[in-house]
Every structure is written in structure tokens, then in C-alpha cells.
Hints:
The longest helix has 17 residues, at 17-33. A hairpin with a 4-residue loop joins strand 6 and strand 7 (190-193). The protein has 11 helices and 13 strands. The chain has 2 domains: 5-153 and 221-339, 3-Layer(aba) Sandwich (Rossmann fold); 155-220, no CATH class. By secondary structure, it is of the alpha/beta class. The strands form 3 sheets. It has a 7-stranded mixed beta sheet, with helices on both faces. Its EC number is 2.1.1.56. Residues 300-359 are annotated as: Disordered. Keywords: Methyltransferase, mRNA capping, mRNA processing, Nucleus, RNA-binding, S-adenosyl-L-methionine, Transferase.
Amino acid sequence: MMMSNELAMACPRNQSTHCRLYEFARAALIKIFATPYATVCDLYCGGGNDIEKWDEAQIGHYIGIDVTASGISDVREMLESQRKAYTSEFFELDPCLENLEMHLQDKGNMADIICCFQHLQSGFENEEKARSLLRNVASLLRPGGYFLGIVPDSSTIWAKYQKNVEAYHNRGSTMKPNIVPTCIRSENYMITFEVEEEKFPFFGKKYQLKFPNDVLAETHCLVHFPSMIRLARDAGLEYVEIQNLIEFYDDNRALLAGMLLNSVPNLVDPRGRLLPRSYDVLGLYTTFIFQKPDPDIAPPIISPSQDGIQNHDEREWQETSWKDDEKEGRSDSLHGLGKISEQKGILGPGPADLRLHID
């Protein structure tokens, strides 16, 4: 299972910081992108923790897709008991394995928004699953529609791993030969890789993520962002933004400060500015946003240069720092969303001096 049960349920204020943080991030994206009467398709919808948010956004129709009958049943019961204004329908399918267009024959090009707030990582066990997921998204999205969600930030995680490798080499004379620490420890979480890697594998790189109050660790796959962008383009989706939650929050602080203060008050000061401890918690996650171009309304969004994406796999890693004084200029916003001015946090194979060399 790629996401703990805790995150599959609504998170009261007395629950953990990372759970309430997920609530905030989902609410923020819904607030920015959802429009009245929109049709929303929710991938891996089990848990139903966003039904109130969609109701507040005044959407018109909700399509829930999940791999388990129990997950769908829970959401359906919640909607029926609360009698939301929007209509809904559900499908028990795996977007990474099945052709959704065949099962949802009358739903093609219908969704204004497709969201994936859980389990996107499962699609990056291999390229075939990732390609299937993105093709399914493109087949259901209306031209001009958005595919968006939240995922652990592979850039942040891989950079922390590489710092461990660097520290190992700096202490090389006192460490056992060819033994690299695979565990990343933080005040807020612990990340453990199953095996050491010299370079970032594009697919199938697994790790365990455990928070202080969790009984068991969650198993995830790192999402290699250049591969995600490449496969999305192949499917007909244009890259808009992959942005760490720290940058996402700062770019939209006027809109989001009150929401974060109410959701996770110990991350911001009374004026809505991030506290120092916020960087470790927020920096673990990133938003992703793609759009299906609508040639009848406007020219398609221009993705970063073809060379920039295709050759990024061979480029050296540019380690991401999320300190305010190291942030650079930003371009104008689109629909209230802060646009990044460079590909911050998009993974490459890592710098030569931080790669693991085993003789």
C-alpha cells in the first residue's frame, strides 16, 4: 500500500502534522483550480476526505475511481448520507493497469479536473504503468482541463540521500568500506532506501517513509520528474508546474496563509510567514500540474525546452535549497497560481562527486 490508512481518512486537528498538512495542500489546489459546475475525476478516491472541499467549490459532477470496492463504497456512503449538491458515479478500476476509456466510454474528454492525491507513486514501479496512467488521464480530460495532485518530493528525498553519501565519503577512513547509510532521519520522519544506488533509477526506486506516530512504514516509489514530463507529453499533456510545497505556499501566501494557519498552526507565525521548522515538513512534498491543451481557445502551454527535458537525465543534479534567501525570481501567476521560473527540484542523476563509487 502506497499511502498509510491515516492519510486515507479525514484528519482532525488533533492528528499528526503531516496528515493535516496533506489536508491543507489538497484544499489549496482545489481552491485554486476548481470552478463551479466543473466535472472532477478523483483517481484513487478511497477515503473520501475531499468531498466537503468539492462541495464548497460548487462542482457539478464527481467521478470516483479506486482499485478497491471498499474504498468506493465508503465514499459513496458518505456522499449519500450528506446529500451533496453535485452528482456522482464510481468505477472500480486501476488507472495504472486498465484502459479507462474502454470502461468509461461516454466519459472521454469530459473531466475538467483530474486529481491524484494518493498513490501516484505506484505508477512509477515501471514505465509501462506510468505511461498507462498518463494516457488514461489524457483520454478523460477535456481540452483545457488540468491534471494535478501532490506527491512526496523525490528531489528533496534524493538530495538528502546524497548528503548521506557525501558525509560517508567525508568520513571514509572511519567507515566500513562500501557501506553507505541508506536511512534519512529527521525530527518529523524517517526515510529508508531498500538498496544503495549510485544514480537515480527512473522507475522502481523504492523506499519506506515512516512518521513518528505510524506503526508501520509506507512503501513508495520515487517519481522521476523528467520521465513523468516526457511520458505526459507523449500522452498529450503539457507540463505546467512541479513545485515544492514551500515554494507553492510562498508564491500563494496571500491566498493560503489563513488556510495553513487554521490547518497546521505550528508551521506559520501569526502573519502567515513560515517558521524555520516548516521547511522540513513542507519540503517533503511537491505539487504537480499538467494541462491538456485546447487548440480552439489558445495556443498550448509552452513546456520547458525540448532539450531541457530530454537531456535532463544526463545533466548534473542541481541540489535544491528551500531557504528564502536562496530563492530566485518568479514569473507572473496563472489563475492565481505562482509559476516557477526554472525547473527547481526536477531530478537528474546526481552530481559526480555525490555518486556512490564501489570499486
